[in-house]
Request: fold
Amino acid sequence: MKITDLKTFTVFAFRTNFVFVQLETDAGISGVGEGTLEYKEHALLGALEDIRRVLLGQDPREVERICHELYRDSYWRTGPVLQSALSAVNIALWDIKAKLCGVPVYELLGGRVRDQVRMYANGWFSGAREPEDFAAAARAAVAKGVTALKWDPFGKAYLQLSRQELSRSAAIVEAVRDAVGNGVDLLIECHGRFDIATSIQAAHAMKPFDPLFLEEPTPPDSLDALAEVRRRSPVPIAAGERIYSPAQFREFLDKGCADYAQPDVSHCGGISAIQKMAAMAEACYVALAPHNPSGPVANAATLHLAASLPGFRILEIMLTDVKWRAELTDEQVRFEDGCIRIPEGLGLGLTLREDACKRYPFQPIDLRHYKGTLTDIRPANQSCTYFIGLEDG
Reply:
């Protein structure tokens, strides 16, 4: 069995561009992967083209060897571009191998420890500006059965927050807590943008609202800064979406950086890498809550990991996405009682629709975290809810 082609598809999705990979084989079995890398899509496609030359003619069943050699033979190893490319390939290789064996991917990862996983919603707050706007959006999400909500209430702030900015952020969180009550978990996102002192101030300001965690308070460049915030924070800390290798993850754990670890299957080396990271986290009693704001293939891969990893705590899901997401694959995301069901079917359990992917070509998207536009309203003809079990928005 040999790999005969590597195809790439870049699909505009309003807040980003999904980047999918499809590996073809001479046995007629194909596998899909995803390496969606916001604002670096062209660099990612270049890395995939370099990898393509090496992959052709290789046996896709040799997942560990192929991925190890691709990493080993890359002089510039750890970084988001290479690792996102390797992630997409790794996911596609697991998809092929599981299809060949006639089982879902999670069976090859050790079998299921659960058949559903609790989810928290991101992207539920589109268009909100004032505390009452966030409160209304939160009530609407909870009315659909959502039991955990994540968002960034900090506006345009970078490194520091003025007293007025911190008060406004706290007022937004207070409004949401009052709207949904104590039975819903709140997860507060910082997008890696505060210095140590401001992060600690923010953590203390959020404590009265009992958040499940404060996410990525400091920039990702310094694990020491993150560890210091975690040491002094009165609320749990989550981080790790910009950890790109098991070696970095070991340092992240050794320094005591977080209570919830958030590696991203589409950036850290794929399914194989998260398996290794999960084993390290389990030994340290650090909960796993992977970063998962991307497309349907990354979501499927993360769900198979959720099925098979005992330490997997909670899954991130975009509550709404572009309407054409449903056209890109035959993804079936089933929502029940605040949880997402683990998919059945061979491999990852979904198939890429090439023609649909080509209908929505790449469009450039600018980074928005420090411009205060994270709550932009999508055009009415673009956004919808894509869960089975939730009403369309």
